[in-house]
Amino acid sequence: MNKYASAIFAVSTLVLGAAASQAATLTVTNVSGVWSDWTGGVKQSSTMNGDVAELRWGTPGYTKQQSGYDFAPVPTSGPHQKDQTFTLGTFTHNNFVIDKGISSATLDVTFSFYLGTDSSNIYTRSSQFVFEHWETPNVPESGICVDGKESKPNGVQVGCEDRVTPITNPRKSESFTITEDGVTRTYLFDVTGFNIGENFWTVENQKNSAQLQARFTYEENVPLPPVPLPAAGWLLLAGVAGMGAVARRRRKA
């Protein structure tokens, strides 16, 4: 190889290496949400306030405000490097004094993104989240709320906390094979769900929030769920164990 060919080869390798390095990023181009369903409550309404999806319910009390859920998306973000956790949107529970609350609500979230610098190739995915809602009595006869706190500490009416529990909070991963610095790796766009935990309690006349989070990472960095053993497998194990027991009894005899 002459020196000119060597120079061209070196430049080509540098360009390909740079392009491969740029590939290992993820850019979010759009996130949107809508409250598609709910049960229970009175005077419910689902509207959009700009990009924010709002769900309201109940006849307002002295605060003259309905209780409700909001989902505020983060429409664009990135580019995100691997192993970086980022937020796709924020869920908020607004708790006010009302007469009757919902029992559940469903949120549909759609997100679009591209990899590296190729903004012409847009991927679009969606997830559905279901929240169980417990609108607790604000003035229980015992004076003690369902969470064990007083509804009138020091004689001041503060009401009782309401509980929000994620019934469906799916983890959704999408895999992509990318060549980076000459090495082919599988990456995941891993939507980890709302960081609400098992549930949260929202104080009366207050609000509580949780973030819908995701990350761009290597496939091996995401633990796989345990694979259940089929019924036939359990029967096989039981049979093997039984044969072992018979063999031990024979040896003892």
From TrEMBL:
Membrane-spanning intervals of the chain: 227-247
InterPro entries with a match to the protein in the record: Choice_anch_K (IPR047995), VPLPA-CTERM (IPR022472)
Signal peptide from the UniProt entry: 1-23
Keywords: Membrane, Signal, Transmembrane, Transmembrane helix
RNA-binding listed as a keyword: no
Domain of life: Bacteria
Protein name per Swiss-Prot or TrEMBL: VPLPA-CTERM sorting domain-containing protein
Record lineage: Bacteria, Pseudomonadati, Pseudomonadota, Alphaproteobacteria, Rhodobacterales
